[in-house]
Specification:
The protein has about 80 residues and is an alpha+beta fold. It has a domain of about 50 residues. The chain has one helix and four strands, in the order βββαβ. Strands 3-2-1-4 form a four-stranded mixed sheet, with helices on one face. A hairpin with a 3-residue loop joins β2 and β3. The longest helix is centred in the middle third of the chain and has 11 residues. It is globular and about 35 Å long. The N and C termini lie far apart (about 45 Å).
């Protein structure tokens, strides 16, 4: 029996992978498109581009693997 989601798909429209202190990004899986590294400022616009009517506060639509709403610290000028 084949799974309803493809390889790497979580079943959620948006799946935010675990927090990585070594990066200013969080890897975000967008159902049907794969995974993208996003900065905090990019997150909502990109998610709404793909899923215009999504409720970002609904855990059935946006799943955070850990630390919901948090992003690694980063300061301008750092790589």
């Amino acid at each position: 029996m084949e799974n309803a989601t493809g390889p790497g798909e979580s079943g959620y429209p948006v799946f935010v992978e675990s927090f990585d202190a070594d990066s200013r990004y969080r890897r975000v899986r967008l159902r049907g498109l794969g995974c993208e590294p996003l900065e905090p400022e990019e997150f909502e616009p990109r998610v709404r581009q793909v899923f215009p009517d999504i409720d970002l506060d609904d855990p059935a639509q946006v799943h955070w693997e850990d630390r919901p709403g948090q992003w690694p610290p980063w300061h301008p000028g750092e790589a």
